[in-house]
Each structure stands twice: as structure tokens, then as C-alpha cells.
């Protein structure tokens, strides 16, 4: 129960808690009312029975009327009346057949006193009744016992009707209150849901979007303001971090270019030392890393402006197929169909270059690139027959400086930034990049972009509204 309760929404928990508390209070109130009403009705019946017994005893005590005549002078009103000879215990008069043939009470109170017996439970029922026994002495000294047995049938019907009406009324009232409470809780939590939607919409720390602060000035408004303050701090930290990367990349460009130029103007390759050749390769690698860091910093900038023009993806894919065939010993295959998208050709070419370089880096012998149109989108699939990527690591490969263990964590010249750049730039174009398992046994990267609208339709480029 605790686990299920914890999985419920706050609105459901609040409504359920209030409903449980309300029903508990109502049950207690209904129980108290039923006991009080039963006591009130049975008290009225007891008072009526005592009055009848006192009236009948007074008439008998005068001695002016015989017991049957005295009994007939008192209205029964649904009660059973009886006069008994106290000396012999014989029934002298009764209001009905049962009262004339069956002794209703064996009590023999002293003259002028009475015995009251209540039959039944705490609550009135059809079998509950009040029995009043009273003694009366005539002037000639004879002693009689007067008995009044009053069933609670009328009171029981009244009690049942009142209880049914109370329960129905309470149920209707509970439903109305619960509906009202649900609306109040929903209205109260509406700012919280707005905060949730706003935060879900904010895609990155550098976003300029902020949480809507409700005008209520309460704790929820304070929470929204606190979240905005936190987002401001994250934005400043993100901006500072990207600026640092950008500045560092710019500063590293010049010395690396100088070192590279110095090495390239050194003595001929046959006279170069092994250390100088290693140094040259490391300089190239450092330049590649610096360029990637600078590109990633620019791509992560929310204010990045992309060129918006029609791009023939089939031309970009053909270019990559030719480049891989010329620059690698791998078996490179492809299936290319015409597909045009709206975007920045240089950035999309960079994305495709990063995906194909990644495939070539880890492929054992084969790489394939396919381009097709599907459901209004251009889909590029890049497959390799390398070690593949475990399911649990398929999101981690798109993180900065990601390195997987053990099969894909080999030093093959990668900077660990190419896939992060690819996903960021494709996201800027409104597309997606995912990774899965290739039929060749390695990794499969799938890039999806919306096809460009027909020439006679208004086109929207990346970042346009």
C-alpha cells in the first residue's frame, strides 16, 4: 500500500486524504446522530408508556370502575394494556387477546411505584419495546398491578426513515464536497503543473526560457522564482563555460598552427626523426580536437544562427562515399536516393562527416551509408561491422569526451566530441540522431530530418518560427 500510495500523484493523494478524513468524520457523526435519535425516540415512547400506566393506575385506584371498564377508559394508542390481581396473579382485563390471556409482567412494585423495562438494543428496531409495571390500591384495600407494554414500531420506522435520509444526504454532500475539493486542489496545483511544463520545455541550461511565476505571491510563486534564479545561474555558468572553451580554442589555434608549419618546413621526410613524425601527428590531432571544441561551443550556443537553404542530402552522401573509398581500405557501400531538406549545408556536411568517420574508425572491414525518404523525413543510416555499442551505453556515446569500455575505447584518433557535435547540430535542425545495432554486427547510427516542402510552399528553415 505504501508503494502504491507513493506512486500516486500529489493531487490524488490530497483528494484521497481529504475524502478519507471527511468520510471518517461523517461516519462518526452519523453514528452519534443515530444513537441520539434512538435515545430520543425511545425516551418519548417510555414517557408515553409511563403516562398511560399512571393514568390507568389512577382510575383503578379510585375503585369506581371495574378493571375492564377502567382499561377501556384509557386509549391504547398502539400499546398493550393489562390489569392483574396482585394477590392471585390472575389477569383481570386486557386490551387485546394476548393481554387477556398472558401475563405481561411478573414485577410487583409497591403501591405508588413503578418498574420500567426497556427491551431491545441501543438502536431502535422492530423487536424493541418499553414495559411499565405499576401498582394501584383501591379504597377497600385490594391491590392491582397495571401493565403497559408499548412496542417501538412507530419509532423504529421513524428512526429508519431518518437514518436512510441522513445517509443519502450525507453521501450527496460528500460527493459535492469532493468535487469542490478536487477543483480546489486542481486550481491550487495548476501553477505547479505550469512550472512542470515550463521546466520540461526548457531544453538546456543556456535557454532563455523561464518558468512562469504565478501572481499569487505564495510558496508556489516563491518556488517558481527560485527556479528562475537557478536557471539564471546555470545560464551564466553555461555561457562562461562555453566562452572559456571558445577562448581557449581560439588561443590554441595560433601556437598549434605555428608548430605545424615549423614541422612541415623541417627537413624532408626521409631525414625526419621518428620523434618529429610523432610530434607532427600529435599536432594534427590537437588541431582536430581544438576545432571540435570550438565547433561544439558554437553549436551549443542558443543564439547560433544557421543558414537556411535547400540541401540535397544525396550529394552530401555521395561525397562521403567517395571520400571513404579513397581514404580508407574499408569496403564502402551505399544506397542513395534523392532527398532534399532545409538547413545549413556546411553543418549538415559536418554531421555526416562525423558519423562516417566514427563508423570508419571502429569498422572491422565494412561501412555502409544509406539514404531514403520515409514518412516525410529523410533518413540516413550509417552502419559498420565493428564491436557495436551496448544498449546501456547508447546514450552515453553522444556525451562530450565519451569513451566506452572496452571494445570501442581504443585510441583511433577520435576526440570524443564528434557524436556530441552531430546530435547538437542535428537537433538545431529539428532532427534526431540515434544509435542501435547494425545487421552487420556493429553500430548503426540513424539521422532523421524533415524533408523540405515543395517549391511552391513557404519553407521554414532551422530555428524559424
Automatic annotation (TrEMBL):
Molecular-function GO terms, alphabetical: ATP binding; phosphorelay sensor kinase activity
Record EC number: 2.7.13.3
Matching InterPro entries: HAMP_dom (IPR003660), HATPase_C_sf (IPR036890), HATPase_dom (IPR003594), His_kinase_dom (IPR005467), HisK_dim/P_dom (IPR003661), HisK_dim/P_sf (IPR036097), Sig_transdc_His_kin-like_C (IPR004358), TCS_sensor_his_kinase (IPR050428)
A GO term from the CC aspect: plasma membrane
PROSITE patterns: HAMP, HIS_KIN
Subcellular localization: Cell membrane
The keyword Ribonucleoprotein is assigned to this record: no
Domain called Histidine kinase: residue spans: 247-453
Primary location class: membrane
Alphabetical UniProt keywords: ATP-binding, Kinase, Membrane, Nucleotide-binding, Phosphoprotein, Transferase, Transmembrane, Transmembrane helix, Two-component regulatory system
Domain HAMP span(s) in chain numbering: 186-239
One of the Pfam families matching this protein, by short name: HATPase_c
The keyword Chaperone appears for this protein: no
Spans traversing the lipid bilayer: 159-181
Catalyzed reactions: ATP + protein L-histidine = ADP + protein N-phospho-L-histidine
PANTHER family the UniProt entry points to: SENSOR HISTIDINE KINASE TRCS, SENSOR HISTIDINE KINASE YKOH
Name of this protein: histidine kinase
